[in-house]
Specification:
Blueprint (H helix, E strand, L loop, with lengths): L1 E6 L2 H14 L9 E4 L3 H15 L5 E2 L3 H12 L11 H11 L10 H4 L9 H20 L1 H8 L10 H18 L7 H14 L2 H8 L4 E6 L10 H8 L3 E6 L6 E6 L4
Parallel strand pairs: 1-4, 2-3, 2-6
Antiparallel strand pairs: 5-6
Length: about 260
């Protein structure tokens, strides 16, 4: 069953969540609630709000969506490591090792000014972290770009920045293989994951995720606020949060994530 709730008041959505937690409690007090949040700040706010409403908020885990998705990969697919070799932290350290090797490449000229006067490599670490964050977002929102680059294709309509990004992504893949680390990441596992679910019996998939009811609770703002131009929509989407809640039969599973408005 699929339900969608949306409101422009987070407090109202929180109250609805409390209602479901009170009226659909877990079968055992030792079972853990799993609440997916888009940011640590949201988890802290929600933890405080739940404690105030329920009197206590204990044995609740707040993984980020990427962490939860990877957990699902390891449960459904065989041979998938518990930790991804393409996590943001792992990519940051690898990119620190790779970036200096490419700074003489003309395609990397846009990055040179970030590394001026960097004797202690602090700027290199910061730049590697920013690029790792960019690739991490591509893994979630633009897996088709990464697949195209891996097939030596360019993306139409992108700026010249894709040249150094493509080169660095392919170098990151090769470096990961040289370290004898698994090649799997969210982009190349997604289709395999979906195919496996499609081939599995419906009952098995439901039992695996323990989902009997599916609730989506959105934090929304009037659509009239959103301009029709892509640039304005892009500006607004960065400030909008969307609250998604998945209520499970053996335990409530909640998901809070950014608005998908484009």
């Amino acid at each position: 069953m699929f339900h969608i709730y949306h409101s422009n008041q987070l407090s109202l959505l929180k109250s609805l969540m409390v209602h479901f937690m009170q009226n659909r409690p877990l079968s055992s007090p030792f079972e853990q609630e799993v609440i997916l949040v888009q940011s640590p700040g949201m988890s802290q706010w929600l933890q405080i709000q739940l404690a105030e409403s329920l009197g206590i908020a204990a044995n609740i885990r707040y993984p980020l969506p990427a962490t939860f998705i990877w957990e699902m990969f390891t449960r459904v697919l065989s041979g998938i490591p518990k930790e991804s070799a393409f996590s943001k932290d792992a990519m940051t350290w690898k990119l620190m090792a790779l970036l200096p090797n490419y700074l003489d490449d003309p395609a990397f000229k846009p990055l040179l000014h970030y590394l001026k006067d960097d004797e202690d490599k602090r700027k290199l670490h910061q730049l590697a972290g920013r690029v790792a964050d960019l690739f991490d977002q591509y893994l979630v929102y633009r897996p088709d770009w990464l697949s195209a680059w891996e097939n030596d294709q360019l993306i139409d309509g992108l700026s010249d920045n894709q040249y150094w990004q493509k080169t660095l992504w392919l170098a990151l893949q090769r470096y990961t293989e040289d370290l004898a680390q698994p090649k799997w990441h969210r982009a190349n596992l997604y289709q395999q994951f979906i195919s496996t679910l499609n081939d599995a019996p419906v009952g098995g998939a439901c039992a695996l995720f323990s989902i009997a009811y599916f609730y989506l609770w959105y934090f929304s703002i009037a659509t009239s606020l959103f301009a029709s131009t892509a640039s304005n929509r892009q500006t607004y989407r960065k400030s909008i949060y969307c609250l998604l809640i998945l209520a499970a039969i053996t335990g409530e599973i909640f998901k809070i994530q950014n608005s998908s408005l484009v």
